[in-house]
Specification:
Strand content: 25-35%
Number of helices: 15
Bound molecules: (2R,3S,4R,5S)-2-(hydroxymethyl)piperidine-3,4,5-triol
Shape: globular
Largest sheet: 10 strands, antiparallel
Length: 748
């Protein structure tokens, strides 16, 4: 619901209220963003500057409260008394926009520039502000659990105007907050980092040309006492995949100014008379129920209003990806062998990753040449995909269309298509980016990718991008508009193709890409213990349905950490499950365990992918209201571990539940010489007997069953004891380092 009453605008849903007041000077003041309130509460919620603070520049010399610097604002100009950071910079001129009108529109308002937008908005408030020669439109679209804001600047004068900065939103929130950002790099994405927001500005930005694995555009502001289940938390994100910028800073008056938009660094664009510039959409979310409440609001917004309509709430297939198992070393025979094995494990989609085209036998050549390598694939993609279909699986294919290797036919013919500057080229992973601001480059990509997609039975695409850009400012923004145009032209007419975006793993995990690709490859790091951090970081802002999560080999290629297969599965379950390892070398016990994992995941896939997510003391839980699945994850074990309690959230206290821990296989090989304590005969820990036993036999783990009330589960039930070196029996959890369990809680 959006309404206007005596200059007060109220945007309200069941999750939040957002109040704006147009003051006596035509300045939109920010009144409230938080728990639902009444429009009539505006006076009680507004800032009360009284007689002001002194030394301010006043809009009206007779009114000591008319100092812009001390008010909570919806937008801010420059040079007119507000000396905090401005969301707008027009070269060589101050700005002082005043309210000129409003409209309340049904649904959302389409943009002209081709940036991706959220869909299914309820209503939109358009506030118009003007100054001589320019008009500013502030858009507020209400969604049930989030508010989406964006800004449009129009040159209404008769001379060109130079725009150096235009944020998607700016707001002054009363109160003191901490900011949580999600930082990292390749194989180390989404590490949460908290800082208090005080008088010095805190900035979260990317300059790599992508939304980046260094600083995800999504961030939180929270009150110091906020916890997982309680406290006030705000979440912000940008529907954009390029260089972004967000800043938060607290004023002397205790107002925290927050803004977010396209990064203004090196940004400058000329607006001819009559022309407009549109900012990307920004998402603003609130919860009074802690980080958990905020995440669930964000998840519901992303699942319902960002993901392309066809894939909304659609179960995602269990896939097998060839990359970690084969890299560039494959041919049709090897792929079909892997496909047969993947099928027998229960996988539903076979994805051929890098290496299928041109001279792409390594990462130094071939990008840009999308002609099938007939030496590797003599029957082409049509033949391979048909055979995979005949096995009963879907077929998916990797592309990296935005890049070109200098060692490629494309580059030899069109060196001018690469993105360059006036200096000698600098390569990233031996490649350059193509200049997506050029229409002929976009046409080449659209034609070639479309041709291949239509030449075979392809139901999934992994769209990769593996280098940072050299483009700055306006050029970098133009590149993103070019990319969105390409994606729209390729996948718009093919909505049933499941697109998984990837950029060296999670280098472009953002809402812009998610408008086209329902899932994103979260990280090249598939070590489950690292994934707890990566998927855990993502969980604050993005739902499980968007997170590509694969089981790979152990010891892990990036950490050398050996983890149980059960834990690799248990962590990957909380996303879109896949397998990415050489299946030929699996032991019989591993094959059996993976089959069980896939069957279990399929049984509960909707709950894992779309259930309500919670971070808990011991791990994560997801729930669809009747089934709750709780993961309990351990790091390094300590000697003599104490009692452990599992607390499940969100149950009915008087209902009765059956709790079962997922069965798991404990490898006998891991006991080595310790087996002498239980085996009737002496066993050489390095001998063939143990090796054979380890291939074929496992000890039973998990499988605990309890019947217990919701009240007991919510206050915390005691789990079976962990192994303490005092003996072995089936009533304990004998797991060692990095062990884990999944508990299935079903209402009786
Ligand atoms: C980087 C991706 O993140 C990997 O999953 C894989 O697709 C490689 N590129 C292929 O070159």
């Amino acid at each position: 619901m959006i309404c206007e009453q005596d200059g007060i605008f109220h945007i309200g849903t069941e999750a939040y209220s957002y109040l704006i007041k147009i003051n006596a000077y035509g300045i939109p003041e920010h009144v409230h963003f938080g728990a639902p309130v009444k429009t009539g509460d505006a006076a009680a919620l507004s800032c009360r500057p009284g007689l002001g603070w002194g030394s301010g520049v006043l809009l009206n010399a007779q009114d000591s409260a008319s100092c812009l610097d001390t008010l909570a604002l919806e937008w801010s100009g420059s040079g007119r008394g507000d000396y905090r950071e401005s969301p707008l910079e027009l070269e060589g001129t101050s700005s002082d926009f005043r309210y000129s009108g409003f409209r309340i529109l049904k649904g959302s308002v389409a943009m002209a520039c081709g940036l991706p937008q959220a869909h299914g908005g309820l209503e939109t408030l358009e506030l118009t502000l003007e100054q001589p020669g320019a008009k500013l439109s502030l858009y507020y679209t209400a969604y049930p659990t989030a508010l989406v804001r964006r800004t449009v600047l129009e040159n209404t004068g008769d001379v060109p105007m130079r725009l150096n900065k235009l944020m998607s939103f700016c707001v002054d929130l009363p109160g003191a907050y901490h900011m949580a950002t999600f930082n990292g790099g390749w194989i180390a994405e989404m590490r949460r980092h908290d800082v208090p927001v005080g008088g010095s500005k805190v900035v979260n930005e990317s300059l790599t040309g992508a939304s980046s694995n260094r600083h995800n555009p999504g961030f939180l502001l929270f009150e110091a006492n906020a916890a997982e289940d309680a406290g006030r938390v705000y979440g912000f994100n940008l529907i954009y995949s390029g260089n972004h910028y967000a800043a938060a800073q607290q004023s002397l008056q205790g107002l925290t100014r927050v803004m977010q938009g396209v990064n203004p660094s090196n940004f400058s664009t000329e607006l001819a008379p009559g022309k407009i510039f549109e900012s990307p959409e920004a998402v603003l979310c609130f919860s009074g129920e802690g980080f958990g409440g905020l995440s669930r609001n964000m998840h519901s917004f992303v699942n319902g209003h960002i993901i392309p309509a066809y894939w909304q709430n659609r179960p995602r297939p269990v896939l097998y990806n060839s990359w970690e198992g084969c890299m560039f070393d494959f041919n049709q025979r090897r792929l079909l062998d892997l496909a047969r094995r993947a099928k027998s494990l229960g996988c539903e989609l076979f994805v051929l990753d890098d290496g299928w085209f041109g001279q792409r036998d390594h990462d130094k050549a071939g990008l840009g040449d999308y002609n099938v390598n007939k030496k590797k694939l003599p029957e082409g993609l049509e033949g391979l995909s048909r055979r995979i279909r005949d096995l009963g699986m879907e077929f998916g294919l990797w592309f990296e269309p935005e890049s070109v290797n200098p060692d490629s036919d494309l580059y030899r013919v069109h060196p001018d298509w690469a993105l360059t500057d006036s200096f000698p080229d600098v390569l990233g992973r031996y490649q350059l980016l193509l200049d997506l601001t050029k229409p002929e480059v976009r046409d080449y990509i659209v034609e070639n990718v479309s041709r291949i997609l239509d030449s075979a039975h392809i139901s999934y695409v992994k769209w990769d991008m593996n280098r940072h850009s050299i483009a700055l400012g306006e050029k970098a923004h133009g590149y993103m508009l070019g990319l969105y145009d390409v994606l729209r032209r390729i996948f718009g007419p093919r909505p049933g193709i499941l697109l998984e975006s990837c950029s060296s793993g999670g280098n472009r995990f953002d809402l812009g890409m998610l408008c086209f690709s329902p899932q994103v490859w979260a990280s090249d790091d598939t070590d489950p213990i690292e994934r707890l951090m990566i998927q855990g970081g993502l969980s604050y802002l993005y739902p499980q349905s968007t997170i590509g999560a694969h089981v790979s080999a152990a010891p892990h290629g990036q950490t050398l950490r050996a983890t149980p297969l059960s834990t690799r599965g248990n962590v990957a379950f909380f996303g879109c499950l896949g397998y990415e390892l050489d299946l030929k070398h699996l032991l019989p016990v591993e094959i059996k365990e993976i089959k069980a994992q896939v069957a279990f995941y399929k049984q509960y896939r909707e709950v894992f992918q779309y259930g309500r997510f919670r971070r808990t003391e011991l791990g994560w839980q997801v729930s669809d209201g009747s089934v709750t699945l709780a993961g309990v994850f351990h790091g390094l074990v300590h000697a003599a571990p104490g009692y452990e309690q599992l607390r499940i959230r969100g149950l009915k206290k008087d209902a009765v539940y059956r709790v079962v821990s997922l069965s798991q296989a404990i490898r006998v090989g891991q006991f080595g010489g310790l087996l002498k304590h239980v085996a009737p005969v002496s066993i050489d820990p390095n001998g063939p007997l143990l090796r054979i036993a380890d291939r074929h036999f496992t000890l039973p783990g998990g499988g605990e069953e309890l019947t217990v009330s919701g009240g007991a589960l919510m206050s915390g039930i005691m789990l079976r004891p962990l192994f303490r070196g005092t003996g072995y029996d089936q009533n304990q959890r004998t797991q060692g380092d990095f062990g884990s369990d999944v508990y299935i809680v079903e209402r009786l």
